[in-house]
Please model this.
Amino acid sequence: MSQILRTCRPDIFLMCRYYGSQRNQHNYYETLRVSPTSSQKEIREAFIKRSKEIHPDRGDKGSHEEFVKLNEAYNTLGKEHTRLQYDMSNRVNDISSHTGAGAARRPQRVYNRVYTSREEWEIRMTGRPRTARQYDPNNYYGITGIKRVSNLRIALLLFIFSAVGVALQFLAVHRSVTFQRQNLINRSTESEKRLARIHTERAGTLSEQLERFEDRVRQKKGVNPTR
Model:
């Protein structure tokens, strides 16, 4: 309902003059034979009932004119936003008749006097007041169950989210550097072991070569080899 009011607010006072002129001829509620506090369902049921009673096919005198008026009344009261405009135009006309023509030139002041509170407007349009839960000011744009979040809380959540992101990135970089460093150390240790093994193998081969050389020398001199 609040969305309808916000959407139709610019057109409300543009429609007042039209509905005001129609009001002098006949009242739509009287045409439909319903109370101004009737619900939309009651208005629809009254229209169906009256349309059957005064339908032109019945052949009654004057039924065509009454049927046209009935359709005109239902086209206005059958929709919530046009009914709201019609009701407000009637209230404006009532105020203007008591305060003079100058009140009609001050639409904002007149609007404020049409409904003294939102609760009055809700009762007028729906037939029942809204509950305290529906009037919860923390409801986000009037949507029940979705609470409004303060800017401070949003900023705090964004800061926490950014801090967690930076911490995770720092941890990932640190672990990557540590892993690379450890990998280099392992490779260096392995290379040192391999080099030491090569040196050992080379040293052993040279010793064996010397022994074989000494054996050959002894054999030439007629000395028994050491082995």
